[in-house]
Amino acid sequence: MRNKRELPQAKRALYEYVIGQLNSLFEGSKNTLCNLANASSLLYYSLPQTNWTGFYLIKDNKLTLAPFIGEVACSHIDIGKGVCGKAVATNQTIVVDDVKQFVGHISCDTDSQAEIVIPLRVGQNVVGVLDLDSPYTHRFDSVDKDYLEQIAQIITHSCDWADNTLIDTDLLH
What we know:
By secondary structure, this protein is α+β, with helices and mostly antiparallel strands. Helices cover 32% and strands 24% of the residues. The chain has a six-stranded antiparallel sheet, sandwiched between helices. A hairpin with a 5-residue loop joins strand 2 and strand 3. Helix 1 packs antiparallel against helix 2 (32-46) and helix 1 packs parallel to helix 4 (142-157). The longest helix is centred in the first third of the chain and has 16 residues, at 11-26. It is globular, with a radius of gyration of 15 Å. It starts with 10 loop residues before the first helix and ends in a 16-residue tail after the last helix. The model is unreliable at 1-8 (pLDDT under 50).
């Protein structure tokens, strides 16, 4: 595992710190690629017990790999397949305590044991997902879910989705 900076120990305090850092990073920037890259790095290096943090965006009616930190990942995921695809299809955050128990789980990093996937919404439309993996089962709980959903909202509101080629722009209508 990588070294992580000393941050507040309480989970809620840690997430409040991360939210403050995200808001500072995004101040004055609407560049989607830059904001997703910075968010990936901040989350990866701030949240303990994670081994993959990143994004998939909908392009050509598939989830397409976007900025991430971690081991190599699947380039494309069909909507409805795996945890990420199911989160898009259901428009719901999915918390998987043990990926070995999730039927249809797509394994890119065999060290991953738990996963949380949060839809990224622009208006009512899902444009992608925020995906975090952990090498520990039962890593993500309701506190993680609540804060990561807030973080996903901050991210989507901080990006100019209409001015990029990363997503299918017809999703914005």
